[in-house]
TrEMBL record:
Signal peptide: none annotated. Residues 1-127 form the Ferritin-like diiron domain. Pfam families: Rubrerythrin (PF02915), RUBY_RBDX (PF21349). Residues 132-165 form the Rubredoxin-like domain. It comes from the Archaea. One of its GO terms (molecular function) is iron ion binding. The keyword Zinc-finger does not apply. Keywords: Electron transport, Transport. This is Rubrerythrin family protein. The keyword Glycoprotein does not apply.
């Protein structure tokens, strides 16, 4: 394997560890272990630092326009190819929880691709997006612009559950 192959493998591992330790932090806090939660949170942030540095080492961070083009392509691949095949396999194996997660993610990825396309259109004209606010659904990952809907069109969560991204 080349150094860049190793960097790509390390990036994947560091990224996964970042998310895993973040979830472990939430779980420790919920179980009444605030100091263990802090330890997991610190480790999560450390893994994010490693992942970020690896992206730069691999020269995978371009201009905002380049990053948006790549993001549209990646999200589109996920909702048109990856998740449909995952959903089919989950159905075959009667894994209903995984099927729900895959379905929510697939639909959210389609929204993400659309939001990135809007951003790309603006950036390609040398402008920022003309939006007031960005809202995130904490259940399915749907992203809404300007205001949260009465309920999430993907998973049904009420507007009060959406988190405004600053």
């Amino acid at each position: 394997m080349t150094t860049m192959d190793n960097a790509a493998e390390a990036f994947a591992g560091e990224s996964q560890a970042n998310r895993k330790y973040f979830v472990f932090s939430e779980k420790a806090a919920a179980e009444g272990y605030p100091n263990v939660a802090k330890l997991f949170k610190a480790a999560s942030e450390a893994e994010a630092i490693h992942a970020k540095r690896l992206l730069f080492a691999m020269q995978k961070v371009g201009t905002t326009e380049e990053n948006l083009k790549g993001s549209v392509a990646g999200e589109t691949d996920e909702y048109t190819k990856m998740y449909p095949s995952f959903i089919k396999k989950a159905q075959e194996e009667s894994e209903s929880e995984a099927e729900t997660v895959f379905t929510h993610a697939m639909r959210a990825e389609e929204v993400h691709a659309g939001r990135y396309s809007i951003a790309l259109d603006s950036v390609s004209k040398g402008k920022d997006m003309e939006i007031k606010k960005v809202f995130l659904c904490p259940v399915c990952g749907n992203i809404e612009l300007d205001e949260a809907p009465a309920s999430c069109p993907i998973c049904g969560v009420p507007a009060r559950m959406f988190r405004e991204i600053e």
